[in-house]
Structure formats: structure tokens, C-alpha cells
Amino acid sequence: MKFGLLYIKNKNIKPEDSFDYGDCWTYTSEKRNSGFLISFASGKRTEATCQVMLDKQFKVMDLPFPENKTFFSTDGNIQYEDLLKKMYAETCIAYGQIIKEKKENRLVKIILEIIYGDMGGHKISTSVVEGYNNKIRQRISCFGRKTASFSKSLRSHIARINIFQFDNNFIETKMERDGIKFMKTRTPAMIEGIADHVWTWSEFLIWNA
User: Any idea what the Cα angle at residue 202 is, between residues 200 and 208, rounded to 5°?
Assistant: First the structure.
């Protein structure tokens, strides 16, 4: 989840202003083993926005079954726990939370908790999504903290992330071990079997579905 700002700060919102103005949150879903950015949704920090992200995620993923479970790791946001229980039977998914306690902006404690299901040796970790939080802040100016580069509309805010998603999944290669060395070899889309080559921006701009 990453913080953003639409048009003005919360403290400057007037009664006649759009509901979209002020704080904006982006919920993201990444696949840990490949780094594939599966889905995202931007809006207020509400269950409805979280629901949009999860709906997009399950549209492109294989449906989980008891013999082929999907494993989830999130922070302590209760929205995930409530929605995942509503969307799928607990026998089909396993879900764990990692809760980081801070004191005076310093990490003092990490709590790993299995909410339901058997993680089957899968590590409860949000390191991949936290890496994306940092990556998006560095590459999309509207996500920078306390800057003047905030988005002027939700539509443009989402468009920027759409472009980032394509670049991350189809153009940027990941470090993989080649013998004893690590080399940039494949994109997340190639690792997932969605693409057979590294895309270029020219291909993206002229591609017609």
C-alpha cells in the first residue's frame, strides 16, 4: 500500500470538493517468486478500494483449490483478512500477516502470524511489496513524500501506475543466477510464461490487441 495525494491536502478540502481529493492510497499485489505486479487499485483507504484490487487479482490468477492453494502474505490491515474470507473458502488459501511494531520511527518488533490455513513452509513476508513501495516512490514523482508533484486527478494517477506496471512486468529484466553469477536475464512476464521476449517501448506503443 502506498500513499499518494490528489489535487490538495486533506486539511484543505472544502465541503464542495470532490470525494477523490486529498489522501489517495494504492493497493498492490505482487507475485513473490517472479516479481510480477499482478494488480493494483487506487482510491480512498477503504474496503471498497481493496476489493477492486483483489477482484482484478483473481481475474488473472488461477483459481485456488484445496489441492492447489494460493498463499497470501500482507501487513496487518484487517481489510485483507475480511475480504479474503468472503471471496474464497479457507481450505483453498493460506494467509499470514507480518506486523511490524515501531517506536519513535524505529522497528522494535516483528510479529508473524498465520491467520488461517497451512502455509506449507511458505515464508510470511512482505519484502517484495515493500520493495515495490520504494521503487514506485523513486520512479513516479506523485508518490514522493512532501513534494509538489502530486496528481491532479485520479485518472492521471492511475495512468502513471499503468505505465509503471507494464515497464516492470514486460521491459525490466530481473537478476537471476547464471552459474555462479547473477545476471539480468528475464522479465517477470517471461518468468510467468506470459511473454517470450523482452518488450520495447516501440512495441508497447504500436501494439494493437
Answer: 105
Cα-based angle 32, 37, 40 (whole degrees, multiple of 5): 120
- State how beta strands 2-6 and 22-30 pair: antiparallel
Nearest-angstrom CA–CA distance, 198 and 169: 9
Q: Tell me the Ramachandran region of residue 202: left when phi exceeds 0, alpha when psi lies from -120 to 50, beta otherwise.
A: alpha
Provide the 8-state DSSP code for 193. T
Paired residues of 24 in beta bridges:
4
Residues constituting the chain: 209
CATH number, domain containing residue 121: 3.30.420
- When divided into structural domains, the chain yields a total of 1
* Alpha carbons 162 and 102: distance in angstroms, whole number: 32
Closest CA to 187 of 172, 209, 166, 205: 172
φ/ψ of 185, rounded to 5, equals -125, -45
Name the DSSP class of 142.
G
For 27-39, the pLDDT digits (tens) are 999 998 899 999 9
Q: Are strands 22-30 and 93-103 parallel, antiparallel or unpaired?
A: unpaired
**Structure confidence by residue, pLDDT tens digits, 5-29:** 566 677 777 777 767 777 888 999 9
